[in-house]
Amino acid sequence: MKKVILILLFLTFFVCTLSAQIRVAVSDFNNQTDILFLDGWERSVPDLLRANLSSINEITVLDRSRLDKVLEEQALSLSGLTDSTSIQEIGKLAGAEFILSGNVDRQAGEYVISADLIRVKTGQIQTEIVRSADRDYLDDMIEMLANNLIFRLTGKGAYKNKETFTSNSLWYWSGATILFGTAAFITNTNYKSNLEKYDSATELKDFEKFYDKANDSRNLYSTFAILGGAALIVTIIDLIDGSVENEISSGRSANVLLNNSIKLTRNDEIVFNVQINF
Predict the structure, then answer these.
(1) Which candidate, 197, 176, 178, places its Cα nearest to that of 186?
(2) Could you give the residue ranges of the DSSP H alpha helices within the chain?
């Protein structure tokens, strides 16, 4: 009897836990540009977001095939789901509370990922956006976007508005300046030493030996001095420009509820209504 009660309690807890989870269906992200490499983002962004959202216990990410099957059966595409009734119907059939889709774009010299979070129950659309001037920071953009979506869905963590990445080039060029400067100092010392030995030599073979060594040391000194000077110039430029390498910023749009309908009146007139609530 006790075992039965324990099993029932466990099943009750398990069912309650599942019901408490937020069910999200992640669909397509569309490339809004003619930039070819953003086609790769179009494919990878949904997968990366699924992985990030799935790591949160409170969120259940539905299998993409389930949403695709429902859309196929209804002969619809997610891009056409602006009608709240359609959104509610598709979400209900897919078993999702939220549908996530969006775009990748290039605006004002920045790469932009926008994610539309559609609440199935109400048709409300909330948009999260991340921007970066550097295309090499896709993973960091996804991490910030996922963080803010998780905050929206669960309230967990803190909303991130900006993340700044400092450049390591200042340290690289400073190190190069020190390295080449040290090499120039050593080769210059060797040059002076061999020159003194050349001046004090008394035999012909010593003249030739120390002359060659002094000449080689002088050539090396000139090379290291030029490289050290160039590295110093770049170090100064980096220092003046600052050490910020890239900045990722986020934003959110106003909450919008879209309702539209088409009605045929008794006078054979077609009436199209659109209601937008902010």
Answers:
(1) 178
(2) 2-20, 37-54, 64-73, 84-94, 138-154, 169-200, 204-241
Does domain 2-165+246-277 fall under CATH 3.30.930.10? My reply is: no
DSSP 3-state of 253: coil
Would you say 177 and 233 are in contact if contact means Cβ atoms under 8 Å apart? no
Mean pLDDT by 10 residues, the chain (278 residues): 50 47 90 95 95 93 81 64 65 86 94 92 89 94 96 92 80 88 92 84 78 87 92 82 78 60 48 43
Residue 221 C-beta-side C-alpha neighbours within 13 Å = 14
What residues form DSSP beta bridges with 126? 117
Does pTM top 0.85 for this prediction? no
Q: What is the pLDDT of residue 204?
A: 74
**Alpha carbons 196 and 214: distance in angstroms, whole number:** 9
Q: Break the chain into its structural domains and give their ranges.
A: 2-165+246-277, 169-242
For the range 107-116, what are the long-range contacts, defined as Cβ-Cβ under 8 Å and sequence gap of 24 or more?
Answer: 107/131, 109/133, 111/38, 111/135, 111/141, 113/29, 113/41, 113/45, 113/141, 113/142, 113/145, 115/29, 115/49, 115/145, 115/149
Q: Closest by alpha carbon to 119, among 88, 81, 79?
A: 88
- Exposure string over 127-136, b if 16+ CB within 10 A, otherwise e: bbbbbbeeee
Kind plus residue range of the DSSP H or E element containing 251? strand 244-252
pLDDT at 89 (0 to 100): 77
